[in-house]
Amino acid sequence: xxxxxxxxxxxxxxxxxxxxxxxxxxxxxxxxxxxxxxxxxxxxxxxxxxxxxxxxxxxxxxxxxxxxxxxxxxxxxxxxxxxxxxxxxxxxxxxxxxxxxxxxxxxxxxxxxxxxxxxxxxxxxxxxxxxxxxxxxxxxxxxxxxxxxxxxxxxxxxxxxxxxxxxxxxxxxxxxxxxxxxxxxxxxxxxxxxxxxxxxxxxxxxxxxxxxxxxxxxxxxxxxxxxxxxxxxxxxxxxxxxxxxxxxxxxxxxxxxxxxxxxxxxxxxxxxxxxxxxxxxxxxxxxxxxxxxxxxxxxxxxxxxxxxxxxxxxxxxxxxxxxxxxxxxxxxxxxxxxxxxxxxxxxxxxxxxxxxxxxxxxxxxxxxxxxxxxxxxxxxxx
Length: 382
Fold this sequence. Notes:
With about 375 residues, the chain is mainly α. It has a domain at about 1-10 and about 30-50. The chain is built from 13 helices and three strands. It has helices at about 85-100, 105-115, 120-135, 140-155, 160-180, 180-195, 205-220, 225-245, 255-280, 305-315, 325-340, 345-360, 365-380; strands spanning about 5-10, 35-40, 45-50. It has a three-stranded antiparallel β-sheet with strand order 1-2-3, with no helix packed on it. It is globular, with a radius of gyration of 34 Å.
């Protein structure tokens, strides 16, 4: 904002003759005032528009006593642990462990029995979430979607709607991931992350970030533009990295055994395996319908990505036990690494191991994928 101030007119010099220099005398002129405009540009520069023959004297300003108030960033809302919340989390944890181990039939029977016994909206929402997870692991995406519709219908009646909504969004993104609905899945995840940005929600945030990493990985596979593909690969790496960082952020005291195992090992392992698929570009190397895309040997992949993928797989060799699906993904990743190194018999062996684990766990979606890769690798061996 322009500032107006007053200053005395400077001393005037008497005229000198050309032929003879006279002594300079001060003129006895009356004091008068000159109006000057000073304007600050905000970048430490000051413009001064002074009057004719005026003198500008800079003056230092002491701002030692200037106090600036800066608000502290808001802290995330603490996670609550009511009696009902603990009951629902424990129930979901036990059912998820059954489903993750491949005991799908036992898991479904337990859910159906409990649904007949309880009318509590929170417990019923939890059971339908567990049912969705069980259907997803069994490759029945349509049934999983119906289970999540039951959750949505119960939200207004529950005491812990935000936690149920978050679980619903996580499994919805998983359905979208399996059915290749990438844009919709990313929108679901972004909205979920927005809703929980100022909340502590346990291990679920890291799981959602892993899904986001998988979405970017699969989108990068299909992207033809090299620049856009590089951006998607970067986003995927960041998502997997954030999942690993986030898994150890919050208090572990209120986590149940399966959830705690997820936080300590499985989340990191799943993110690392996702990183291998990303670096080897191998998620879509073979499709169940026989329409094979590149096999991971003809595409151009930086040597550093191959080296990093190899290091990750080596670090997982002495791992703690993975959940059933992660174990399948691990052996498929090993198969692709062997195939890229032209070790075809070893690649076929790893692919068969993945297929057998998928059959044992009744993971229908992965049975088809693993079987198609086995057939593909057999051709290389022959």
